[in-house]
């Protein structure tokens, strides 16, 4: 549920990012993406706690594609975070998105290797269904 404050702030920022001469098209796209991904209360990039690098058993909260990348929001008790966005490794992003969609629709946990930060998000380097 969106509060008036969050919605107003998002609209104001989107207007500032898309105003003539305010930013490049890529900066505007990145800014709007961060706004949309953050409206649900999840953490993106440096916001929120960083995940512990390594293997984790997680729940897929949300997943999808945008701005040429594939993303997944995960909750991992072993990593110490809830509803945190990660970016999928570029060379395997289509296969990882398929796994994330299967996990989300089937209510199945995933086993994942969370690596270092890339493009403001920690990178998912391996992603498997976990039974």
Descriptive report:
The protein has 131 residues and is an alpha+beta fold. Helix content is 33%, strand content 37%. The chain is built from three helices and five strands. It has helices at 4-18, 25-38, 93-106; strands at 54-66, 69-76, 81-88, 109-118, 121-130. A five-stranded mixed β-barrel has the order 1-2-3-5-4. A hairpin with a 2-residue loop joins strand 1 and strand 2 (69-76). The longest helix has 15 residues, at 4-18. The radius of gyration is 15 Å and the shape is globular. It starts with a helix and ends with a strand.
Concise summary:
Helix content is 33%, strand content 37%. With 131 residues, the chain is an alpha+beta fold. Strands 1-2-3-5-4 form a 5-stranded mixed β-barrel.
Give the SSE map.
Layout (H helix, E strand, L loop, with lengths): L3 H15 L6 H14 L15 E13 L2 E8 L4 E8 L4 H14 L2 E10 L2 E10 L1
Helix pairs in contact: 1-2
**Which overall shape is indicated by the principal axes computed on the Cα atoms?**
globular
Order of SSEs, N→C? HHEEEHEE
> How many E-type strands?
5
Major sheet attributes = 5 strands, mixed, barrel
């Amino acid at each position: 549920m969106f509060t008036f404050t969050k919605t107003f702030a998002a609209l104001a920022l989107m207007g500032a990012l898309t105003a003539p001469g305010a930013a490049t098209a890529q900066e505007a796209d990145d800014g709007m993406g961060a706004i949309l991904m953050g409206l649900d209360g999840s953490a993106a990039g440096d916001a929120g706690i960083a995940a512990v690098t390594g293997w984790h058993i997680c729940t897929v909260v949300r997943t999808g594609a945008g701005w040429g990348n594939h993303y997944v929001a995960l909750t991992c008790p072993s990593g110490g975070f809830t509803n945190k966005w990660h970016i999928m490794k570029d060379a395997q992003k289509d296969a990882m998105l398929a796994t994330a969609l299967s996990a989300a629709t089937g209510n199945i946990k995933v086993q994942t290797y969370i690596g270092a930060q890339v493009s403001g998000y920690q990178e998912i380097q391996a992603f498997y269904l976990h039974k």
